[in-house]
Amino acid sequence: MSVNKAHIQSFFMELQDQICTSLEKIDTKAVFKQDLWNREGGGGGRTRIIQNGHVFEKGGVNFSAVHGILPENIKHALKIEASDFFATGISIVIHPQNPFVPIIHMNTRYFEVGENTYWFGGGIDLTPHYVIKQDAQFFHKSLQKVCDEFKQDAYGAFKQWADEYFYIKHRKETRGVGGIFFDRLSANTKHTKQDVFEFVKLVGQAFVPIYSELVKRNKDTPFGKNQKDWQYLRRGRYVEFNLVYDKGTKFGLDTSGRIESILMSLPSTAKWFYDFKPQPNSKEAQTLNLLKKEVDWVGI
Amino acid sequence: MSVNKAHIQSFFMELQDQICTSLEKIDTKAVFKQDLWNREGGGGGRTRIIQNGHVFEKGGVNFSAVHGILPENIKHALKIEASDFFATGISIVIHPQNPFVPIIHMNTRYFEVGENTYWFGGGIDLTPHYVIKQDAQFFHKSLQKVCDEFKQDAYGAFKQWADEYFYIKHRKETRGVGGIFFDRLSANTKHTKQDVFEFVKLVGQAFVPIYSELVKRNKDTPFGKNQKDWQYLRRGRYVEFNLVYDKGTKFGLDTSGRIESILMSLPSTAKWFYDFKPQPNSKEAQTLNLLKKEVDWVGI
């Protein structure tokens, strides 16, 4: 049976349920609040937000499935002819309470336009406030395993893509330790549409085991005001990336998407300290030194 | 004697001194910290930051005078042929402690390229966390008076320009109550370069009397946690505007300006509350209702 949009949409909806249930179990206190919304041009979504938990300060796990007619400027930007589109996906951003637990972001999406054009896209990337090498290695090894199931050279290519994408150019810093990023994946001589879908499923299913491990390792690490302030500062960088560079955010704002769903990615609190420079050799300075492209996290 | 760039630069430097001295007097506690910086391609600036004062939580009063060769993309964007440029200006953003004191922004600038092309630009605009009609009226009447000195229809035109410019499209809100905004002002059949410079001087000199009055009226207004949280939320909108829409910020980030001077405009703390809706008829709801274009603040 060939993969169609109904299968993909169902998978994403079930994945959203699974992820929310798992995150609530991890948090033990806060639960997701759901907002259902409809899009004027067709379709809608389920925005789910968790706030003020034991583990999670603010997080969103959003599902949407929208359809309709593509605006001209978007057709032009995507270099496509047809107008009738369908898009579905999941988008997750989690801002934890403890500065030693990393921020995580995952997105998996499917886009279809006209009769013959479709693609999958997505990725997972990690933004530790404090880079812990073993955690970054675990994270990348897990993603490498997922990519290896798909094809041999996928991890290297998608890891590089994430390095390029999650880069705060004006700070000359990566947003975090990267991860994988991919777009416009469709069937080719080596893979069927089903193969690509299976890969996207694996990416989506990798989220909970990866993040629950990283939370478990770090959620009880003691911290004080200085660590919390550093977390606020790093969140400020996250805001800078999302508002200045992130294409998904820009696309959402330009196309008048549901603003509160798009900007759920922003932290509850962010700070900007003028010209802050960490003490040499401090954990903060060590983190800054690791926010670079092309770090071999698997082999570190 | 004709106006040249040395006169303009000197005026801006003296104005920076006057404004900083005045703001320190108003604050009574905090003083400005100065950072001198040089630009690789030519020129530099004096960034002055005040933090953690009685009245001002974070503010910047920046002067710069830079020169060199314009990058191709900027020549293209500005639709000019020559490459040799000189630019000088003052840029101010003040984030107060008390939520009833408004955020204020002022910019005056002069740009010259090649032998025959120059223009002045700038403006002042006000972003109250709580819109107080009498204060907005006072603010706009003061600006109207400055504009009337220049030419009869200037206030209306520059007020409309500010309404258009300081607009957060994705929120369908103005950033605040607007003010005046102007760009590419140069000599024409009615005004000499000296006339335009005199207007820019008046704008710059209007800053202290206007803002000191607004601070005096509101700095001792009592407030609690809810008002502070609303201030943090409005500051979040300020961050959204500056990172998503502000052309000066974008220009600075794109041209690798001094990042800490450009982003001094961001508040020390901003918050995002998911889907926050103020109580009907509350002061917060009344403020939202007034964040519109084309409000006649002088006649309100």
- Biggest β-sheet description of chain A: 7 strands, antiparallel
> Order of strands across the biggest sheet of chain A?
1-2-3-4-5-6-9
* Helix fraction bin of chain A: 40-55%
Instruction: Please report the total strand number of chain A as a whole number.
Output: 10
Tell me the β content of chain A. Answer: 25-35%
Overall structural domain count of chain A: 1
What assembly state would you assign to the polypeptide chains in this entry?
homodimer
Amino-to-carboxy terminus distance of chain A: 43 Å
Return the string of H and E elements of chain A. HEEEHEEEHHEEEHHHHEH
Question: C-alpha Rg of chain A, in Å?
Answer: 19 Å
- Annotation field: number of helices of chain A: 9
What spatial form of chain A do the alpha-carbon principal axes imply? Answer: globular
Biggest contact: A-B, 30 and 30 residues
Global mean pLDDT of chain A: 96
